[in-house]
């Protein structure tokens, strides 16, 4: 079995509903999956003793198609599982609704910079042994209704723990990447059930401290809808009498099963994904100690090839020790300018191929690419069209937009329609294009090819954000509301720009809009067009201050020493 080499050394298991392994593998939807993928890549580079567990999501999240009026259609996004992964000869069953649902893993080996590998297991129920309905349980990431979702989370958490054991892993630490994986704690409770003869009256049925000592939980969102809740009658139908019902209610909430609460109560170490987010989470869930480990990105994955070559030449060890990028101030400015020109040319070409629109390679290009949903405020840049047109009349400006709306997020879909209409309305004054199908590959071109990376979420709802970190690595300057990671990274006028002067400032739409327009008109655009040397100096500051710190190598070294090796 190809796993043999990993069994004795691997003691940490990372559970995640989604993971962006490579563009051809569609088992991710957005930021959470990208983070999991970047985490796996850093773990492989650092040779950590870890295994990743996720679902195979054969039909992906969805492929985004948009018609001429800006209406989004969601198309299944099947991928070739057997082209990228090998089947493992092991199977376990989980009882769901009284039926045995069989689960089998696919193995993907993630190779690190020094050639060493770590295993990623993708769980699959598309097996002859299963009913037609159960075979489809690992098809659609975040698809279907609550019942489908609940079953997927059962397969991930309970199925994942059982499979690791069946394969021969001896896991000491389970890392729950978001609450989706919290059912793994129930499987562990059963493993540490106190024998009836040892049970004193009034004592817990389970060794809860033991379970807690084995679990690490990372929470990823302050948005209420991001925390899964399931009705107890639904849970009871799917998982009849799996754990003692009063214990479950004590751990997961009295009224409905809250996956975040379950994870909080059964994890010894809990963290948010930026300092601000940890504070917000402590306020949302009083009584829990929430640590902060700020997210990062895997630099080797997100550096444009020209920048990667420059870093390879100047800082040979940057892929292992990204901190050396702090010396980016020594980079020759024309080398940086050339790398950026190449990255921007790639973007111009991609926009041409995808939409037929011709971007001007000399004009300042603002990119806004993120999930299309209310709190990200995708329309904020266009709130006062006359002012925007007047600014663009003084200084040419072009805008590239991308992002998917969740199939049930009508507000997000409406924003896409509105953006299409705005692009048509602005034609001739501001070139504004929407690129369908935001994914890992498209993101790589956008984060390197833009001049300015725009981010306008409603504070404090952006837990961290990572796309701006990818941009900074490529010398692209961030202009963002002070929320999430940017609070820690922004030195206004040095590493990029803030919208508003202090965290929380840009909460009201009108205020955020006028501060954004002021920044563009009086600071960003004049600098771009009249002081190229100062702009390039900022590009270097961005690389030195942002990329050297906001990377998944630093992040995983922290998880390893503070969360895993307690
Ligand atoms: C990096 C990335 C994200 C997450 O970035 P945010 O800043 O949180 O929006 C989402 N989707 C894709 C495809 C990405 O590459």
Explain what this protein looks like in three dimensions.
There is one protein chain. The protein folds into 2 domains: 279 residues, Glycogen Phosphorylase B (Rossmann fold); 247 residues, Glycogen Phosphorylase B (Rossmann fold, 3-Layer(aba) Sandwich), CATH 3.40.50.2000. Helix 16 links the parallel strand 16 and strand 17. The model has no long low-confidence stretch (mean pLDDT 96). The protein is built from 22 helices and 20 strands. It is globular, with a radius of gyration of 24 Å. It is of the alpha/beta class and 566 residues long. The protein binds pyridoxal-5'-phosphate. Pyridoxal-5'-phosphate binds next to helix 2, helix 17 and helix 18.
Which key features would you list for this structure?
566 residues, alpha/beta, Rossmann fold, 2 domains, ten-stranded mixed β-sheet, six-stranded parallel β-sheet, 22 helices, 20 strands, 41% helix, 17% strand, binds pyridoxal-5'-phosphate
């Amino acid at each position: 079995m190809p796993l043999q080499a990993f069994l004795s050394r691997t003691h940490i298991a990372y559970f995640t509903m989604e993971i962006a392994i490579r563009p051809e593998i569609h088992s991710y939807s957005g930021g959470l999956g990208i983070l999991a993928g970047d985490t796996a890549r850093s773990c492989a580079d650092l040779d950590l003793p870890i295994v990743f567990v996720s679902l195979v999501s054969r039909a992906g999240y969805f492929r985004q198609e948009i018609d001429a009026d800006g209406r989004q259609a969601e198309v299944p996004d099947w991928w070739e599982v057997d082209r990228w992964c090998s089947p493992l000869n092991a199977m376990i069953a989980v009882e769901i609704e009284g039926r045995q649902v069989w689960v089998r893993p696919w193995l993907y080996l993630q190779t690190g910079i020094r050639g060493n590998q770590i295993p990623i297991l993708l769980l699959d129920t598309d097996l002859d042994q299963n009913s037609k309905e159960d075979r489809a349980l690992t098809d659609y990431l975040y698809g279907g209704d609550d019942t489908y979702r609940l079953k997927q989370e059962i397969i991930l958490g309970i199925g994942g723990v059982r499979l690791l054991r069946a394969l021969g892993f001896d896991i000491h630490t389970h890392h729950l990447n978001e609450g989706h994986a919290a059912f793994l704690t129930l499987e562990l409770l059963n493993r540490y059930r106190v024998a009836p003869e040892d049970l004193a009256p009034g004592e817990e049925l389970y060794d809860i401290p033991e379970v807690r000592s084995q679990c690490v939980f990372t929470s990823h969102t302050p948005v209420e809808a991001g925390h899964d809740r399931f009705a107890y009658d639904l849970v009871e139908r799917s998982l009849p009498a799996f754990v003692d019902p009063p214990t479950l209610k004590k751990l997961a909430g009295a009224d409905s099963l809250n996956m975040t609460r379950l994870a909080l109560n059964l994890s010894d170490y809990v963290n948010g994904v930026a300092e601000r987010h940890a504070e917000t989470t402590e306020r949302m869930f009083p009584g829990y100690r929430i640590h902060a480990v700020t997210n990062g990105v895997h630099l080797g994955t997100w550096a444009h090839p020209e920048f990667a070559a420059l870093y390879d030449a100047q800082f040979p060890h940057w892929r292992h020790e990204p901190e050396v990028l702090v010396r980016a101030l020594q980079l020759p400015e024309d080398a940086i300018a050339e790398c950026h020109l190449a990255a921007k040319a790639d973007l111009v070409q991609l926009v041409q191929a995808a939409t037929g629109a011709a971007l001007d390679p000399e004009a300042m290009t603002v990119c806004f690419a993120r999930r299309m949903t209310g709190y990200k405020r995708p329309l904020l840049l266009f709130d006062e069209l006359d002012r925007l047109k007047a600014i663009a009349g003084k200084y040419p400006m072009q805008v590239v937009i991308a992002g998917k709306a969740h199939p049930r997020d009508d507000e997000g879909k409406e924003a896409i329609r509105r953006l299409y209409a705005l692009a048509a309305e602005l034609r001739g004054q501001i070139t504004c294009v929407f690129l369908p199908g935001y994914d890992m590959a498209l993101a790589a071109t956008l984060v390197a090819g833009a001049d300015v990376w725009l981010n306008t979420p409603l504070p404090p709802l952006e837990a961290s954000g990572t796309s701006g970190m990818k941009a900074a690595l490529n010398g692209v300057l961030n202009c963002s509301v002070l929320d999430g990671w940017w609070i820690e990274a922004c030195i206004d006028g040095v590493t990029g720009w803030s919208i508003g002067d202090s965290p929380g400032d840009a909460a009201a739409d009108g205020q955020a809009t006028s501060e954004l327009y002021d920044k563009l008109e009086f600071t960003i655009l004049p600098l771009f067009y009249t002081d190229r040397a100062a702009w390039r100096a900022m590009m270097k500051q961005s690389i030195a201050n942002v990329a050297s710190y906001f990377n998944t190598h630093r992040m995983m070294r922290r998880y390893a020493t503070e969360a895993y090796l307690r």
